[in-house]
Amino acid sequence: MSRPLRLPPPETPLQLYRHLLRESSYLPSVVRPFIDKYIKSSFQKSQKDISLQHVPSRFKRGQQSLRYIRAANNGDISRMNRILLMAFGRIGPRRRQLVSSLVRKPIPTDTAELAAYVQQYTDVTSLDRDPDWLDNWDTNKLYALARSQMSTSPRNSPRPDITAANLSHKLTIPEKNSWDNPWPKKTYRTKLKKFWITLVEKIMPPLPKDEWEKLALLAQGQFQEAGWYVRPRRTPVGTQYEPEWRYDLYATQPVARVDRRSSRRQKLLTGALDDNTPTGDPQPLNCHRFTPRLWRRLLMHIWSLSPTMEKTDVAGKGGGSAVWSVKWGKQHFTPPAATKTGEMEFFGGIAQDEAKAKGDGAKGKKGKG
């Protein structure tokens, strides 16, 4: 991988905005729409509630985000993997949007669904309590996804694992309190809300079916069918940026602290040169060249964490709730066949040995009989 770019840092919010959009243009095509929208919405939100005391902190966060995206584009796998997790809603703000659409009850489309919707709120008011936000959640759909996630157990998930105790509020909430009395209605309702909130924090929300299918094509290496492309980086015009040597920092701070930005672990973020190494500027750590095989491995991990849900039966087996079908991305590994010239000689005679062992076993059984 080539050395990280040494570009002049932005000095104004407008320059920072342009730098972020330009650096986002070098991300994969499936990631760019989310990152561009996130950058634009963040700056628009800052323009509405801007204040002089918040400008330095927000400008600093923007510079950190710029260095983060630039390091990911330069070959930092861990940071690129985190950007992919954010783009596909496994973490970050898009996950919250997918969770909101997951727990939201569907709008009634016919008279029967409307009658069931009204009957549910009638049952709530008959319990001598006001409707709350939990009444607006589709707990059946959420429970179906949580149960499927527990049985699948996706590897290297950014969220905690779901256990059998997390799926039953009867196991989580005891029937009686410490005085051996039933819970008050309000207290029990509060504990029930906390149970569902804890369960929501552990789930991987489902993706739309078309996006899930596109991710499946990418995970299988079919980049052209899914419209995948990564824009090549343009050569910077003129000479690269050379920061001035700050003698005042060496005079007022320890040398190890000043030279930390030029270490191999921080060079992808800072783009600094190491002039103190006798053999020359060393290569940064975790700096890799993105190949189709590496992209396929990263996207396969994202696909294994992404489910999709479809309603299979509106009435349901019990006659009340709907039945949901959940599909998870799964890698199908097929070992390569052994070649005749190379590996086949190590397997020679195995078939004869297995046949002989079966024959000896059959003879032994007849002798015992």
List keywords for this structure.
single chain; 369 residues; mainly alpha; two-stranded antiparallel sheet; 48% helix; globular
In words, what does this structure look like?
This protein has helices at 13-24, 32-48, 55-73, 77-87, 93-103, 111-125, 139-152, 169-172, 185-200, 209-219, 247-252, 255-258, 267-270, 292-304, 350-368, and strands spanning 307-313, 323-328. It has 15 helices and two strands. With 369 residues, the chain is mainly α. The termini are far apart. The chain has a two-stranded antiparallel sheet. The radius of gyration is 29 Å and the shape is globular. The mean pLDDT is 81. Helices cover 48% and strands 4% of the residues.
SSE arrangement:
Elements: H1 13-24, H2 32-48, H3 55-73, H4 77-87, H5 93-103, H6 111-125, H7 139-152, H8 169-172, H9 185-200, H10 209-219, H11 247-252, H12 255-258, H13 267-270, H14 292-304, E1 307-313, E2 323-328, H15 350-368
Antiparallel strand pairs: 1-2
Helix pairs in contact: 1-2, 1-3, 3-4, 10-14
